[in-house]
Design goal:
The protein is built from 5 helices and 9 strands; from the N terminus they run E-E-E-E-E-H-H-E-H-E-H-H-E-E. It has 227 residues and is an alpha+beta fold. The strands form 2 sheets. Strands 5-4-1-7-9-8-6 form a 7-stranded mixed β-sheet. A hairpin with a 5-residue loop joins strand 8 and strand 9 (209-216). Helix 2 (90-99) runs parallel beside helix 4. The model is unreliable at 10-68 (pLDDT under 50).
């Protein structure tokens, strides 16, 4: 049975100033970035950087997917139900990434809509992760899921930017062969058939935040094209 692959990213930043450009977080300064990315294939990829280095999850390259962007007749902002204040801009950040994609066929990607149902599910899982020490572990269910952890305080755009930065590892093709390195978080964001997103954030005991986004229908089906 073909099942979707979920992804997670974990980053520690002791000091960071971030500039958000088209949904991609660029680390302008920081003492250190350390991270482990689960690419969903059973292996673990790691990246480290120093000074202004961004590491894999926040690479600045646009890759094949970004191109010049096809836009959308719907616009590229918020759609669906209202987001909680702390998650403001989450749907728009996702849709900015989708708008930057220029698919070879099928027209522009449809925009995601915010779902309070999936947001509630994501909050339940975020709260569970806090109870287990904020170790990134995927839930089980018939949805896609991206996870993010950081030692500081972050915005919705920061979390999406960390995932979207993986476009530098992406070359259009079947998943997961389209990923030259970890890019499953990015492909979930731009998966054409996904229509709804709901996200949550929770404060970790001892500091830091864990972010969870869930997607319906899920993406990252083995052997399938993202769009």
């Amino acid at each position: 049975m073909n099942v979707p692959i979920k992804g997670a990213s974990k980053w520690r930043r002791t000091s960071i100033a971030a500039i958000i450009v088209a949904g991609v977080a660029i680390a302008a300064c920081g003492e250190s970035d350390e991270g482990d990315d689960d690419d969903g294939s059973g292996g673990t990829l790691s990246a480290t950087g120093a000074g202004s280095g961004t590491g894999t999850a926040t690479g600045t390259g646009t890759g094949t997917a970004a191109g010049t962007g096809a836009g959308s007749s719907q616009g590229c902002g918020h759609f669906g139900e209202a987001e909680p204040a702390r998650l403001a801009g989450m749907t728009a950040a996702h849709n900015a990434v989708r708008c930057a994609v220029d698919p070879p066929s099928g027209g522009p990607l449809p925009m995601l809509e915010w779902s309070s149902t999936w947001a509630a599910s994501a909050q339940d899982w975020a709260d569970h992760l806090v109870s287990t020490g904020c170790n990134l572990e995927h839930s089980t269910g018939s949805y896609g899921e991206n996870l993010f952890w950081g030692s500081g305080s972050y915005s919705a755009a920061d979390a999406v930017g960390a995932w979207a930065g993986e476009d530098s590892c992406f070359t259009y093709g079947e998943f997961p062969d389209c990923c030259g390195c970890t890019c499953g978080h990015y492909t979930q964001i731009v998966w054409r058939d996904t229509r709804y997103v709901g996200c949550a954030v929770a404060d970790c005991n001892g500091g830091g935040e864990v972010w969870v986004c869930q997607y319906d229908p899920p993406g990252n089906y083995l052997g399938n094209m993202p769009y």
